[in-house]
Every structure is written in structure tokens, then in C-alpha cells.
Amino acid sequence: MDCQACIDSLTAFLDDELSAPEKEVLQTHLTQCRPCRQEHESLLDSYQWVDQLTDLEMDSTGWTRIHSEITHLAPGKPAWVSPFQFLFGSRWIPVAAGTLGVAILSFFFLAGPKAEMQDEFQVYLEQREQMVIRRPPPSPLEGIREITTDLPNPFTVSYDSSQSNPFTQE
Amino acid sequence: MPSHLVLLILLLSPHTAAFSQNWSQVRGSAERQHEMVMMLIRNGDFGRVLETSRQIFSLKFPASQEHLLVQEGRILSEALAHHQQFQIAQGLLDQALRAVRSNPSKIDLFKEKAYLFTRQGRDKEAMEFFERAMELEKSSP
To answer: Which contiguous run of DSSP H or E holds residue A77?
Structure first.
């Protein structure tokens, strides 16, 4: 057995958790290795010292008294907090203030562009209202062609005067 | 080098001509369908408006002519709104929205839907569509 294995097994040995062959190997090593033996003796002293301690018994009112002291113990607050103490006394106030702040910011970030968009829409509507789509009154040259509506047909090819027949007399 | 250029022009010219012919056909179909939709609206036959207008918005419009679809959506929805047919007008603008691909076209149609909702007194929906238009406008380069 090497020293590291011995040291690792010492606690189990003192707790009587080793098997008989393991105990025998360990004890053999302890008789041969002085540092390990010293470690064993030190640990054994600690065990014996702990065994000598007597358990402290808490009286029935002890826990009640401790609990009472903890709950009534006011935490220390910095001096600058005291003027604002009335604000921090209730937890809902900072929460409400935060919510209000978010709401105000949201209003500026969301309603601002929205209002701008509505203005643009109003401008567009005014322009669109003026965009009256009406067909020009038919010229006498259109002859027998039936005019079904005063709205123009966008697919009808219209020729401007530059493309008219140059040989036609006015 | 000039001979290559001539060759390139000769190679491309049939495609250009075919495109022009194709677009002419598409435009002609759209023109006729438009007149049909307007006639339905004028006659108060609103139940057939959407199935007729769908034929306009399912036509393959070249990207350069997409603005005509927006204009069509605007004109037809205007005519429907004039007859208090707001729900059909919104459905028609939805057809137009599905037909267009470019962001400027979508922006215009979103705004048109917003305008239509305002006329219905549905301000919340109007604002929602206007916001969508503005978001798309901001995200567009």
C-alpha cells in the first residue's frame, strides 16, 4: 500500500468501515511508515476530542427568542435613504413608477411614428381625392364608337397630334 | 466589326417584332376585357365583375407595362366604389396585387386599398394598408 492510499483510507478505518483484509494491509503499512502513523495518531486524537464533547441542549424558548430577534432586527440603511424612506416603504411604488416610465417611453417611441404616419396618410388622401380619374369628353372623330363610361380605358392606345396623319387637312 | 453588328441586329429583330406583336395582342385583350367589366358595372351586374376582371389580371404583362395594371385596378375600383361595391372593389385590387411584381406597383395598390377602406369608414384597416405601403417604400431601394 502506498502512502496516499493509506491517508485516503484513514477516515474509513477510524469509522470501522474497512473490511478485514483492508484493515490488515493498512495496519501493516502504519507499522512500517512513520509519517502515515503520525497522521493516523493526529486524526485519532481529533476523533477522541470530538467524542469528549457534550451535546448542547437548546431550551424550548431558545429558538423562539432567536427567531424574534432576527425578525425584529432592522437592517442598517444609508443616511441618504432616509428622506426617501416613505417612498421605499411600499414595494408597489417603485414598481408603479417603473411601469409608468415604460409606458411614457413606449408612447414616445410608438405613438410618435404612428402620428407621423397618420399625417402622411392624410396628405395622401388629400392628393388622392384630387386625382379624379375621368375620361376627356369624346371628340367628334370617335364617331360611332360607344362610350360606355367617363372613366378612361388604360389599355387604349392614344396617339398624340405629332402622330396624326400629316396629309389630313384641318 | 460592322458586319457583326448587322448580324446581331438581324438576329434580334424577329424577337423584338414577336414581342411587339405579343404585347399588342395582350393590350388588345385587356382593352376589350376592360370595356366588358365597365359594362357589367354600368349594368349593375356586379356578380360577374371579378371573374371578368380576373382575365385582365391573368394576362402576361411585360414589366415595362405593369403600371397599366395598377391604373386598371384604380379605375375599376373607383367605378365599383361609385356604386358602393366596396367589397368587390377590394377583391379586384387583390387580383391586381397578385398580378404585379414590382414594389412601386404594390405600393400604389396598397395605398389604393387604404384609400378605399377610408371611403368605407374602416380607418383601422386603411391605416394598416397605408403602413404596409410605407414599409415597402422604405425597404425598396
So the answer is: none
Task: Locate the chain A residue with the closest alpha carbon to B80.
Answer: A151
CA nearest to A133 within chain B: B75
Q: What is the pLDDT of residues A12-66, one digit of tens each?
A: 888 888 888 988 888 898 888 888 989 888 988 888 888 887 777 777 788 888 8
Give chain A's domain count: 2
Domain of B50 in residue numbering reads as: 2-139
Report the CATH number that the domain containing residue B7 is assigned in CATH.
1.25.40.10
Chain B contact residues (CB < 8 Å to A) = 27-28, 30-31, 34-35, 38-39, 41-42, 68, 71-72, 74-75, 78-79, 111, 114-115, 118, 126-127, 130-131, 134
Rounded CA-CA distance B32/A153 in Å is 9
Split into its structural domains, chain B has a count of 1
The reply to whether A111 falls in a domain is: yes
- Residue whose C-alpha cell is 397578385: B98
Say which of B75, B111, B114 has its CB closest to residue A154: B75
For residue A46, what are the domain limits?
A: 3-52
In single-letter form, the type of residue at position A118 comes to Q
CB proximity list for A138: less than 8 A, separation 6 or greater? A145, A147
Residue A142 domain-assigned?
no
> 3-class DSSP state for residue A29?
helix
- CB contacts of A128 in chain B (<8 Å) are 111, 115
| Predicted confidence (pLDDT) per residue in B63-89, tens digit | 999 999 999 999 999 999 989 999 999
In a domain, A147, yes or no: no
- CA-based nearest distance A103→chain B, Å: 22
